[in-house]
Automatic annotation (TrEMBL), chain A:
PANTHER family: PUTRESCINE TRANSPORT SYSTEM PERMEASE PROTEIN POTI, SPERMIDINE_PUTRESCINE TRANSPORT SYSTEM PERMEASE PROTEIN POTC. This is Spermidine/putrescine transport system permease protein PotC. Residues 66-261 form the ABC transmembrane type-1 domain. GO terms for biological process: transmembrane transport. Required for the activity of the bacterial periplasmic transport system of putrescine and spermidine. The lineage of its organism: Bacteria, Pseudomonadati, Pseudomonadota, Alphaproteobacteria, Hyphomicrobiales. It comes from Mesorhizobium kowhaii. It is a multi-pass membrane protein.
From TrEMBL, chain B:
GO terms for cellular component: plasma membrane. Pfam families: BPD_transp_1 (PF00528). Keywords: Cell membrane, Membrane, Transmembrane, Transmembrane helix, Transport. The keyword Transmembrane applies. This is ABC transporter permease. CDD domains: TM_PBP2. InterPro entries: MetI-like, MetI-like_sf. Its main location: membrane. Belongs to the binding-protein-dependent transport system permease family. CysTW subfamily. One of its GO terms (biological process) is transmembrane transport. It is a multi-pass membrane protein.
Amino acid sequence: MANRFDVRRQNGFVSVAMLCFFLLYLPIATLVVYAFNDNDSVVIWKGFSLRWFHIAWNNALVIESSIRSFQIAAVAAVLATITATMAALATTRTKPYPGLTLKYAFINQPLMVPEIVTAVALLIVFSRIKIWTGYSGLGYLVAAHTAFCIPFAYLPIRARLESMDLSLETAAADLYATKWKTFRHVTLPLLWPGILAGLMLAFVVSLDDVVITEFVKSGGQDTLPTYMLGQLRRTVTPEVNAISTAFLVLSIGIVTAFFFISRKRT
Amino acid sequence: MATAREVAEKAERDDIRSRWLLSTPALLIVFLAALGPLLIVVVYSFLTPGNYGDVKWQFSTDPWVSVLFERDVFDDTLSFATAYLSIFWRSVSLSLATTLLTLILGFPTAYFIATRPDHRRDIWLFLITIPFWTNLLIRTFAMQQVLRNDGIVNSVLQLLGITDHPVQLMYTNFAVLAGMVYVFLPLMVLPLYASMEKIDFRLVEAGYDLYATRFQVLRRIIIPLVTPGIVAGSILVFIPSLGAYVTPRVLGGGTNLMIGNLIELQFGQGRNWPLGAALSITLMAIVMMALLFYVRNTTRSDGAHG
């Protein structure tokens, strides 16, 4: 560890950092431990049991809202990644052209507005459209999720593109490859890690959303997070801990995959 | 015959046109499902509330007046709407406190990570990223279990004999603050780390050669070098804190509202959509001011270096 003569040392910094990591993980650890509690209470420990996982697994509402969450996240993440890839191709590796800054501002706009504001804006507009068209399916949620996932998908793809120079594409063009062939066989394979990273970020961001979904959803369209938000109003049983734990394992799995993909690059 | 220059110009025009075509789908989705609706919020903030939610199409400035003022029922005079102002004040002060606390905790943490050997840095960074990507609701819920009357914090306090009966932590400003610090801490650490990683430690060494103390090195060398990270982290924490909805709802209960919850109330029980719209625009204006401050700050520091 850092010795007394290390120029990088600052007094007390290591202790604060350790405290920070402890505080970050203490609540999560508590949550996970009590998911295995053989008791109705989330605070009094009785013994190890998997029964709350069983109960959650057999709760039709939990399964139904989980499936809905995944459907929305999958469709929104794919749509967001495709459109963001196209937009990234259109906004990188070029000298500035009219409207370029406007495009950046547009694409990143969902990041800059508080979620609650976007949520009420969508509530206003979609409730009108619902009355006009009579359609009240999942389309609204998919559209909303796609929009706020676009900047998250866009960022890693753009970063990847900016680190690729045009020499390989130029070489392909010199060898009479068409634009499409160049894209298909040169650009796309090189860009793939960025696209994959963007897709995973978009998926996680969509899966995590509470606020916008809570306002946009019609009756009976709960996703897992909005279902859990509803449960928190009641007396909480370890069932919520069990659902959270399962969700946590999934998120950590995706983030770990993301970590290794992006690590291989650098 | 087209000259070489005309050909080049045409190629450039074609390039720009195809770039516009490529970006159209993304721009369209963002416009339809994010930016466009915001413009309609502005329109709604000048309408009259309907009887059962929604609006009547009748121009009115009342929503904007009631953001700041209260109309007396009897003599129609205006006075400051203390209820809303106190919620705005609570939101701003809690968000500033959150930013400050995450900075105090996050600065040493980011510094710790940035000064680890290369191969171990990734692991520490990963440990910060995991909570960041864990569902915000789950993290807030985890905090709730820790802060409850029979939660860990109270158990430890009683074990240590500091108190003999549970301290009410839930549904207080303290709970909201603790929850927001917990939830937004990674947003402070990550940009701080990004700028600390680039510190040239030869400058620190030079400082010690000139007999600086550790504190002087921190204050005169390290902090000035990482100012962009401090500003970026503060903005990243301050903005979502100000618009927080889930954390104050779960940890603050019905009495410790923030702007986000006040807006929600107008669309739910309050049935006053125009007022909710006006409050939303007000929130957005505060956020824009913070962003402008950030942009001005970063361009200035760029100018200083270049």
